[in-house]
Amino acid sequence: MPSPKLRVLIPEQQIQRRIREIAAQIDADYPEGQLYVVGILKGACIFLSDLVRALNRQARIDFIGTASYGRGKTSSGEVKLTRDLDSTIENADVLIVEDIVDSGVTLTYLKHVLEQRKPRSVRIAALLDKPSRRLRPVEVDYVGFQIPDEFVVGYGLDYAEDYRNLRDVCVLES
Ligand code: IMP
Ligand code: MG
Question: What CATH number does domain 11-149 carry, 1.10.260.40, 3.30.365.10, 3.40.1670.10, 3.40.50.2020?
Fold first, then answer.
């Protein structure tokens, strides 16, 4: 089997610059107070780590786990919770942090689940967006980069659990 090739799509410096812009936007948009930042495991963990440190406000960090029933490079359209939050989010300003919005199935499901817990607000920040793949309309409040329909890895994103620790976002070419 030939080994997969990686092509840099978004270099590290560009990611870091964009994260500072998004953090400034978030700081400007929210009134003073604490933000409850919810990362979707595992892909969002690196984006979340950089984003929260770029914010100029108090933030709590929690994680939620989802799995789609599909395997490989496409999701099946069904989602389940595999890990829940540690705390209540009642009356909290919740910011869901995701690595990439693809079909929109994961975020549509999660937003619905979290909204039922009576938070003050729920917004979404996603590093990457593949709008051409959308099956469910989902409002993403903060988007890092829109990308074409290519499978990407790095900066948290994996293919079969590999490549998450790459500093750049790369296209995985087989
Ligand atoms: P959605 O529910 O189809 O929007 O899927 C979102 C999830 O699919 C993301 O959280 C990723 O885990 C995964 N995903 C979608 N596209 C890619 C990709 O290009 N590379 C790696 N993971 C991806
Ligand atoms: Mg994910």
Answer: 3.40.50.2020
